[in-house]
Automatic annotation (TrEMBL):
Residues in coiled coil: none
InterPro entries: NUDIX_hydrolase-like_dom_sf, NUDIX_hydrolase_dom
Single GO BP term: ribose phosphate metabolic process
Record domain Nudix hydrolase: where: 33-166
Gene3D superfamilies (UniProt xref): Nucleoside Triphosphate Pyrophosphohydrolase (3.90.79.10)
GO molecular function ontology, one term from the record: hydrolase activity
PANTHER family xref list: ADP-SUGAR PYROPHOSPHATASE (PTHR11839:SF1), UDP/ADP-SUGAR PYROPHOSPHATASE (PTHR11839)
Record keywords, A-Z: Hydrolase
Official protein name in the record: DNA mismatch repair protein MutT
Species of origin: Stenotrophomonas koreensis
Length: 183
């Protein structure tokens, strides 16, 4: 199988992404440190999964997601764990004593170089209201862990777009990466 070795040509560059053409391939690249985002898997002391709801311009729809954010977008030297805790607090009003990177992988390997780190946040403590920064309008949902999957299906039925990574995140709440049950 031949690899496309043509030199990349940037056709557009913005603050967070650039559009690249390499031979016949068109794709986007994240321009911040490492092209990495973190999705935060967080369960409160009351055994509720934290989800966020926000309008996503590319989809022109309300989306349900786990809290997430770019790693290194504010401080290029910030660790994945520190970024995850910062984003969790900013979006949900909860902070974590610890953040553990579970795995890192591409989000859409045929369309972007972006990778996502699944991060498990533990030792949660409520410190604010959340809602995101001044450019965001985030609604925080606290859903009992035992009802989380059913709640997501209900939201899908109501016309919300659901980030497919939600299902992997729910699985990671209950399992270690090797498939063994947590706890």
């Amino acid at each position: 199988m031949a690899h496309n070795t043509a030199p990349p040509r940037t056709v557009y560059e913005g603050k967070y992404q650039r559009m690249v053409v390499r031979g016949s391939w068109e794709y986007s690249e994240r321009t911040h440190a490492g092209g990495l985002a973190a999705i935060i898997i967080a369960v409160t002391p009351a055994d509720e999964v934290l989800f966020v709801e926000q309008f996503r311009v590319p989809l022109q729809a309300k989306c349900i997601e786990m809290p997430a954010g770019l790693v290194g977008d504010i401080d290029a030297g910030e660790s994945i764990e520190a970024s995850a805790i910062r984003e969790l607090e900013e979006e949900t009003g909860w902070t974590a004593e610890q953040a553990e990177v579970l795995m890192i992988g591409p989000t859409s390997a045929g369309a972007s170089n972006e990778k996502i780190a699944f991060v498990r946040a533990t030792g949660l403590r409520k410190v604010g209201e959340g809602g995101g920064d001044e450019s965001e309008d985030i609604i925080v949902h606290h859903v009992p862990r035992t009802r989380a999957a059913a709640w997501l299906v209900e939201k899908m039925g109501q016309g919300y777009q659901l980030d497919a990574k939600l299902w992997a995140g729910l699985w990671m709440i209950e399992h270690e990466l090797d498939g063994t049950p947590r706890g």
